[in-house]
Amino acid sequence: MNPFTPKVRAVMRREFMHRVKSKWFLLSTLGLPLLIVGLMALSIFLALRGATDTSDETRSLGVSDPTGFVHELLVEELRSDSIVASRATELEGASVEVAQSRLADSPFDYLLVLPPGIVDAPGSGPAVGASDDEEAAILLARENLPAATERTVRNALERSLVRARLRFAGLEDVDAGELLSGAGVEVVNVTETGEARDQEIYQGISFGIAFFFYLILLIYGQMIIRSILEEKQSDIVEVMVSSLRPWELMLGKIVGVGAVGLAQMAIWAGIMIAATIYGLTGGASTLAEAGVDLSSVAVPWGTIGLVLAFLVLGYLLYAGLFAGTGATISNETDAQQAALPVTMLIILPFIAIQGVIQSPDAGWAVIVSLVPFFSPLVMTSRLFVTDVPFWQWTLSLGLLALCVLGSAWVAGRIYRVGILMKGQRPNLPEVVRWIRHG
Amino acid sequence: MLKRFGKKTAVRDLDLEVPTGTIYGLIGPNGAGKTTSIRMMLDIIGPDSGTIELFGSPDIETGRERVGYLPEERGLYQKMTVLEHLAFFGELKGMRRKDALREARTGLEEVGLAERTDDKIETLSKGMAQKVQFLGTILHRPDLLVLDEPFSGLDPLNVDLFKRIVLERQRQGATILFSTHLIEDAERLCERVCMIAGATKVLDGKTSDVKASTGRREVAISFEGDGSFLEAPGLVERVADHGQYVEVRMVEDGDPQDLLERAVRAGTRISRFELVEPSLREIFIEKAEEAGLSAEDESEDASEEEAA
After folding, report:
1. Would you tell me how many other CB atoms lie within 10 Å of the CB of residue A360?
2. Would an 8 Å CB–CB cutoff place A424 in contact with chain B?
3. Residue B211, Cα to own-chain centre: how many angstroms?
4. How far is A5 from chain B (nearest CA, A)?
5. Looking at this predicted complex, what is its ipTM?
6. Which of B54, B67, B91, B138 would you mutate first to test chain A, the one with the most A CBs within 10 A?
7. Residue B39 has what pLDDT?
8. Residue B102: what pLDDT?
9. Has residue B186 got a pLDDT over 70?
């Protein structure tokens, strides 16, 4: 039997049109992309500003060098950076205090004061910054010293000293840079099919999706509660149930509200695709001119389909629970409190998400991703950061589907009795009686 | 039918048949079980025992599309427009959207709301909203109209308008079942009545039969001059003075003709001498007392109703 009777469709259309035409829909549908674009623009702006500070503008570094040769090495080491080092002859031999007082009048942005015995003192090593240690090099700065600059100077000085000491040890021909080159570690995550993927990006996507689910479930769940409450409070519900079955009303409402969510997401997806194409083509040129072949962009359709399936089933599960909850209350004040148990079921997996993303294959993560109330958030997060075995996601999806049917049955019975009830909120034993005798 | 809510019995062994084409009144004080009975008839709630047939068939689901139900507690979606709302009600009764829209426009014209078609419900006055609600009930031309306390809270103009429309529908063949605690309303409108008090049926049948069955004789007399002829212990049981006229209850087997003779002999001028049937209200109170129920409940409930 097709459950979408003409009456259910009438309710669906009413719920859908009513919401889509509202100011709320316009604001939230356009507001979110604008917010994202705004945040992106802000982060780009900040990144550009940061870049200006560290690399674009050249800074000058004076070196007070009693040894007479370390500054030459330092100049070489700093050549590729945006810091121009030169020997500050006029400050040679001056104490740190004197150098400090004369920095403002000097042509330098920064002043590095080396102690005379710096090359002979391998034990102390170079130390940059305020220190009483006689052997430490002191870096004076006119303005706030960016961390990146400090790091650059410190590394350059370290390499210079190593080279100087090597020279003393008679190893003049050795390339110190080569000698010091470390063994960098780059992490490459390899899928089962042997492809590499950038784990950080996928972790970001994973968290983003979980957060999105979390918001959607909470926002649309509240919407369903409000909608049912409105019907009870405006006394329209008895007019309704004389014409159609309570389950028809509930189904129409849940699907209608859900369709609003899907419409909203479709619009967002459209905006995203448009923005991507616009971005790929550099804004002005066409796709062909830019030489971008969109068919070469690997869209993970399977994963997207699976995520949608989890979203839809997860929505149905929670919408049913929220509908049952809404039927037990008669006023706004009770709404928050009554919804708390259901809300907790959504918040709990969200709290666990960070851990799941870090170790998606841990035993507990696998188990949590199979539990129906948690799987919509947890399993979808895992999908992006690990290869979820076939049996796991099918089992998870199957259990979720079963749970949707079960909760729809329970919610339907609570709803049937609850929508005609007024006044005090029923206690748990009463609700259980509704379910049993519904 | 029997229905219990927890330990309280809302309707006890109610046996009721509404003949096609009649105007049927379900009367009784608030809390007597009228609304519960109606809800069971329309399968909004199930009875604990008993059977229900609608249009002679136990398939209530199908039958419900031919019913127009105006519940006592009624409301509208405040944010919808008048026309959209009526069309929605029509669709819920199995009408096609196109037909529902057409009927809605005709109906709005009839009740004088043609200009408010595209306004939101929340902008309407209370009286206008009542009209929309009522239209929503009759839009699909139901064969059975179930009206639960239809006139409570209505302004007098709407009461007349709705009565006119209801009677018109009845003449066109519809059956009307309406419940009220205002017994005078039922007395004026209904061919048949069923009285419920304290979850139990106390009386049912044709309104005229119900009145005749009591076998009492009341006489309304208007006169000028000497009223001493009324002091006739063997003939008159009770006299109620209403100012313009007196209402006299004869003793059993007392002949009103004898009373008239006494008046003429006393030289009193009689301008009206009329045998009247007892009012349903009196019969109801008597029956309820017989059934061991206090009639005070009713007046209390009635005043509560007005307050609400």
Report:
1. 22
2. no
3. 16
4. 10
5. 0.75
6. B91
7. 87
8. 94
9. yes
Q: Does the beta carbon of A144 lie under 8 angstroms from any beta carbon of chain B?
A: no
CB contact under 8 A, B77 and A239: no
* Tokens at A32, concatenated: 């979110």
pLDDT tens-digit readout, A303-327 = 888 989 999 999 999 999 999 888 8
Provide the strand spans (E) within B28-129.
67-70
C-alpha closest to that of B38 among A7, A420, A252? A420
Helix (H) or strand (E) holding B144: strand B144-148
Domains and CATH numbers, chain B: 3-211 (3.40.50.300), 215-277 (3.30.70.980)
CA distance A344 to A382: 21
A residues 20-79 lying closer than 8 A (beta carbon) to B:
none
Nearest to B75 among A6, A235, A245 (CB): A235
The alpha carbon of residue A14 is apart from the nearest alpha carbon of chain B, in Å, by 8
The pLDDT value given to residue A338: 86
Distance from CA of A326 to the nearest CA of B (A): 17
Give the residues across from B205 on adjacent strands.
B193
CATH topology of domain A58-173: D-Maltodextrin-Binding Protein; domain 2 (3.40.190)
How many CB atoms are located within 10 Å of the residue B168 CB? 11
Of A10, A241, A245, the CB nearest to B88: A10
The reported pLDDT for the residue numbered B118 is: 92
Contacts of A221 (CB under 8 A, 6+ apart): A318, A319, A321, A322, A339, A342, A343, A346
Give whichever of A182-191, A366-375, A414-423 has the largest mean pLDDT.
A366-375
Chains A, B: CB contacts within 8 A come to: 59
Instruction: List B residues 121-160 in contact with A (Cβ-Cβ < 8 A).
Output: 133, 136
The count of other CB atoms within 10 Å of the CB of residue B251 is 14
A262 by Cβ neighbours in 10 Å (0-12 / 13-18 / 19+) ranks as: middle
Residue B35's closest chain A neighbor by CA?
A: A238
Enter the tokens of residue B146. Answer: 């179930």
- Give the type of residue at A163: R
pLDDT, average across residues B66-89: 90
Domain edges within chain A: 58-173, 197-288+297-437
**Quick check: A243 and B92 CB within 8 A?**
yes
C-beta of residue A210 within 8 angstroms of C-beta of residue A353: yes
To 10 degrees, what angle do helices B97-110 and B126-138 make? 130
Kindly state the tokens that stand for B283. 């019969």
Q: Residue written as tokens 């005078």?
A: B184
Which among A10, A236, A245 has the least Cβ separation from residue B76?
A236
Q: How many residues does chain B have?
A: 308
Asked whether A133 and A127 are in contact (CB, 8 A), the reply is yes
Per-residue pLDDT averaged across A410-433, rounded?
A: 81
pLDDT > 50? residue B301: no
Handedness of CA A32, A36, A41, A42 (dihedral sign): positive
